[in-house]
Write a structure and sequence with these properties.
This protein is α/β, with parallel strands linked by helices. The chain has a 5-stranded parallel sheet with strand order 2-1-3-5-4, with helices on both faces. The chain is 48% helix and 15% strand. Helix 4 links the parallel strand 4 and strand 5. The structure holds D-ribose.
């Protein structure tokens, strides 16, 4: 499973922790930047990272900004992306089980790296339940296709 990761300057230190974690776990990834802590506009990294998923190159993504919110708003504008901004374990797990979220957004100024890596772990290792949840995900897609 290949993962796309990205961040703005505020999320950069957390993205680097996630990169180390993925290296340790042997998970393949594409780092869509940023590559240092210089000021950056999070919609740019959101778009670049999400396009790795919609193109089929990567299956899931992880995005970091200060709150996780701005980058998730931008990510959710990309057709085919279901991004979830999470800061607790339950949400990171259930957004996979029930929403088939394909991008996890994290706030580097909200949670510490230790907690964030637990969310990454469960997000990457939990499969979508399907069933009645598929119908609801399809209804999300219908909204996307009719706006
Ligand atoms: C950058 O200062 C900050 O606004 C950004 O990282 C993010 O938190 C926006 O939602």
């Amino acid at each position: 499973m290949k993962i796309a990761i990205g961040s703005d300057h505020a999320g950069f230190p957390l993205k680097e922790e996630i990169r180390k974690y993925l290296d340790e776990k042997g998970v393949e990834y594409v780092d869509c930047g940023v590559y240092d802590a210089s000021s950056a506009d999070y919609p740019v990294q959101a778009k670049n990272t999400c396009e790795k998923i919609t193109s089929g190159e990567c299956v899931r993504g992880i995005l970091c900004c200060g709150t996780g919110i701005g980058i998730s708003m931008a990510a959710n504008k990309v057709k085919g992306i279901r991004a979830a901004c999470c800061s607790d374990y339950f949400s990171a797990k259930y957004t996979r089980l029930h929403n088939d979220a394909n991008v996890l957004c994290l706030g580097a100024r909200v949670i510490g790296a230790g907690a964030a890596l637990e969310l990454v772990e469960v997000f990457l290792n939990t499969e979508f339940e399907g069933g009645r949840h598929q119908r609801r995900v399809d209804l999300i897609t219908d909204i996307e296709n009719t706006q």
